[in-house]
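Example record

The entry below shows one chain as it appears in the dataset: sequence first, then structure tokens.
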Amino acid sequence: MTTITLTKAEVETVTRPRSVERLIAGLPTSDGAGVKLTRVLTQELQRRLDPFLMLDAFGTDNPQDYIGGFPDHPHRGFETVTYMIAGRMRHRDSAGHEGLLQNGGVQWMTAGRGVIHSELPEQEGGRMEGFQLWLNLAAKDKMRAPWYRDIQSAEIPEFTTAESVKVRAIAGRSHGVDGAMQRDLTEPLYLDLEIPAGASFTQALPPSHNAFVYVYRGTLRIGETQVPVQRMAILNNDAGSDGVVLTGSADTRALLIAGKPLGEPIAQYGPFVMNTSDEIFQAVQDYRSGRFAAAA
């Protein structure tokens, strides 16, 4: 893919930038068949960061930390967005989808009314690094048919600002560039940023959208707040704000994620996210009764 270089005139202007509400350190945990990861966005933050339900970060050179992968498991009621920085992971699901997630690529899956899938590494050594984000579905869409898209690295639009900030636009719109994915109701913005030391990146954001930044290399500054590596900065929904300004304190890699809140009840039981307890009970019953087809 050819990377677009923006002129200063094309850079989004932010005159009332958001401040940082708080910094979050993720919780080390494991999932699947023993895959070690850090849960950055936990269940306690779902209301605050609606429409986002979870963000996991994983990264290791030790194959024992990832080799078991994620064998067959169910989902209902939301979307998963898996972004692979390094490594190879094979996806298969009960709706008949299959794809290889690899360096720089994204796997976007809508679980909808129910799907069973597996994500298993196709490597026995080397680095495995990436992120999985859970994006909620509106009540009217929770029982829609499952859907899946593999987005290879070359399909993700990239641009470079006049301050040499490199941007990969996974979802949403930034500086006039449409990301690889769009969603009408939740309007997710998902950017992977490479910010040189001393450079700044501006991004316009509607004041009502919830937004956060996760630093996975280096460190950056948002207003008066330093955000160190492996920390998530939740951005204030400041009245009258028009965006955010991120400045690299060192050479930095970070995710900027924002979206429009659904404002609906959230009921979660493990891999099922619905609006009521009754819907959760039904999801569990449907799964146990074999109404989710076995994965291929």
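Notes for this example: The two ends are 33 Å apart (CA to CA). The longest strand covers residues 52-60.
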